[in-house]
Amino acid sequence: MYVIKASGAKELFRGDKLAATLKRVGLAKAKIEEVVNKVKLSLSRKPTSHEVIERALNYLQKTDVAAAARYNLKRAIMQLGPTGFPFEQYIARLLTAYGYDVVTNVQANGFCVHHELDLVAKKDGRHIMIECKFHNSPGLRSDVKTALYTWARFLDIKKAWEQEHGHTKEFHEAWLVTNTKCTADAIQYARCVGLHILSWRHPEENSLEKLIDQKKLYPITVLLSGNQMLFSKLIRAGFVLVADLAKVNLNELSRRTGLGGKRLYGIHQEAQALIKDSSPST
């Protein structure tokens, strides 16, 4: 059986590939085999990769809410779009949880030109310029041109920073943060010049998805009972993380969003169930 990918290309359905993904989200071996078999038997005659994801997600949602969230994470981050601003807010919240002081939308004078920075973070005397590169389509990667651009901006700003009193002894860094993968050339260049990349599956031990999962900092878009319009209204009201949604009562949520009804109740219940299921005591 062939599966049609998002690019239009065809590839053989590989149960081992799906199994490897399910293993990464924490499913036990017996459950992995069960889900792979159910997905394979339920696919249409000409399935798409999207259909494979949907079928697997449907089974996980019924049996393991936390695993479903992890499985849906990459696509959920893409749903923070279409613009990159919600992604920048999300990354700011993520880094804050790891002890960074983060400021968004920073205006900075470089030595040569003026810059608008996505994020500036500080921790342990380190002053970090962060470029966020958001992709809302599967298969897109940040390439070496993005890495070159980020590093060039950093060098201009770093030269200006070093002219300021009190900065000369601080260790300055540049980060490129993206929700998809980077090309091999981008990673090679970054390693060569000292640019830190945080992306999907990179670096291996502290990649974006691992940092998210370690502290259960799931974006609200992992919740399956929401849609793009609802997510947009929630983000505008300050609800970026599932934890934000779960910790307020329904009346407060309705007051802050101006929404009500079964859909708001449903997404609030799902958020609370996910946080409970993801807690260390479970």
Structural description of this entry:
It is built from 13 helices and seven strands. The protein is globular and about 65 Å long. The longest helix is centred in the middle third of the chain and has 18 residues, at 144-161. 50% of the residues lie in helices and 16% in strands. A five-stranded mixed β-sheet has the order 3-4-5-6-7, sandwiched between helices. By secondary structure, it is an alpha/beta fold. It has three domains: 2-63, no CATH class; 85-214, Trna Endonuclease, Chain: A, domain 1, CATH 3.40.1350; 219-278, 5' to 3' exonuclease, C-terminal subdomain (DNA polymerase, domain 1, Orthogonal Bundle).
In short:
This protein is α/β, with parallel strands linked by helices. 50% of the residues lie in helices and 16% in strands.
List the helices and strands and how they pair.
Blueprint (H helix, E strand, L loop, with lengths): L1 E3 L5 E3 L2 H10 L4 H14 L6 H15 L1 H7 L1 H6 L6 H13 L3 E9 L4 E10 L2 E8 L10 H18 L9 E8 L5 H10 L2 E3 L9 H7 L13 H9 L5 H5 L3 H8 L3 H18 L4
Parallel strand pairs: 5-6, 6-7
Antiparallel strand pairs: 1-2, 3-4, 4-5
